[in-house]
User: Which sequence fits this backbone?
């Protein structure tokens, strides 16, 4: 990231804005006014904040960058899913996805430029990790999506932190992002409508459990045993499956909330009935939901999709262990739907 870059206005929550106003000799209530302009009126410049003095507007423009993102391209699926490719101020690119469900609009945000976790079935890891995003760059993804939805009078109802990168390796900005979008002065999205996903950064699962929030937690599991998970997800060598499950049990005891386990089905790798039985025994007794995900085709990866019949047979086995199981409804299948695909395609062209 460029060292001379100004912080983003979206980096600050209400207490931060109050501190900033105090430091600059402004009354505290100006903090709420600025957040109203940012999140309720959704302005694109400080000059539009008409109930602020000219001096304050100039000071804000000198101190902060308001627009962290520019739209490089967007793709819209026949099912209404929109995938944005955003350019950052340092010329990196990230992806954000808007999904329309029968219960409302959800936005999937990215927390890092690239990813270092190295999951073998994921396009996000192609090229490795470039840098972490700031809280403001994550907030701006939701704000840009919301501005696009304003044209059709739709509202972002839920947010999933499941895009490119590992949120728990960018922990503080991710937590700040949640605070801002959850704030009544921010986007006022309820904690129960926010879910964060981790590949298994065990220390921060404990830390997240202790936050005392109602934010959902999803664990990218993808295998029912140590050896298979390590072959698919290198992080499992650093944080073994047994340690991950201990952290999951701690989360369940501490929060009383249900856990979600994401399980990408990869043809011939982890989708056999023996894997389903092993997974059922592993998770039996947990207050959890298993979300089965037909793996997306990635040109750079040599994986095949599990057949529809096999997916239902896999689910039937998990059902026999009394484990709540869903099959993810595919969206954006006719566009570059998988995490990192659109960015990878863009990077080849530049």
Assistant:
């Amino acid at each position: 990231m460029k060292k001379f870059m100004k912080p983003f206005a979206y980096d600050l929550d209400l207490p931060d804005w109050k501190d900033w106003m105090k430091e600059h000799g402004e009354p505290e209530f100006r903090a709420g006014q600025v957040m109203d302009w940012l999140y309720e009126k959704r302005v694109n410049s400080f000059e539009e904040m008409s109930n602020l003095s000219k001096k304050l507007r100039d000071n804000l423009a000198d101190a902060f960058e308001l627009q962290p993102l520019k739209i490089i391209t967007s793709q819209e699926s026949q099912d209404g899913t929109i995938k944005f490719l955003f350019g950052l101020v340092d010329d990196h690119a990230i992806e954000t996805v808007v999904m329309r469900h029968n219960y409302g609009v959800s936005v999937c945000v990215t927390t890092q430029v690239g990813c270092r976790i190295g999951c073998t079935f994921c396009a996000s890891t192609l090229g490795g990790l470039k840098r972490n995003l700031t809280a403001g760059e994550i907030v701006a993804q939701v704000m840009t999506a919301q501005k696009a939805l304003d044209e059709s009078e739709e509202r972002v109802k839920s947010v999933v932190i499941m895009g490119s990168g590992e949120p728990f390796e960018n922990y503080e900005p991710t937590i700040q992002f949640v605070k801002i979008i959850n704030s009544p002065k921010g986007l006022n999205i309820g904690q129960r409508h926010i879910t964060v996903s981790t590949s298994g950064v065990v220390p921060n699962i404990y830390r997240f459990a202790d936050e005392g929030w109602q934010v959902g937690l999803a664990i990218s599991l993808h295998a029912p045993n140590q050896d298979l998970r390590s072959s698919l997800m290198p992080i499992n060598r650093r944080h073994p499956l047994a340690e991950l499950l201990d952290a999951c049990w701690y989360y369940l005891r501490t929060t009383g909330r249900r856990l979600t386990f994401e399980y990408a089905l990869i043809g011939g790798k982890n989708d056999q009935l023996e894997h389903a039985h092993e997974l059922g025994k592993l998770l039996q007794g947990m207050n959890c939901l298993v979300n089965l995900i037909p793996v997306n085709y990635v040109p750079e990866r040599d994986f095949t999709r599990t057949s529809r019949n096999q997916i239902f047979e896999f689910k039937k086995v998990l059902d026999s262990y009394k484990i709540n199981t869903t099959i993810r409804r595919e969206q954006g299948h006719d566009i570059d739907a998988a995490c990192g695909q659109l960015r990878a395609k863009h990077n080849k062209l530049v």
Observations:
- The chain has twelve helices and twelve strands.
- The chain has a mean pLDDT of 92.
- The CA atoms of residues 25 and 260 lie 47 Å apart.
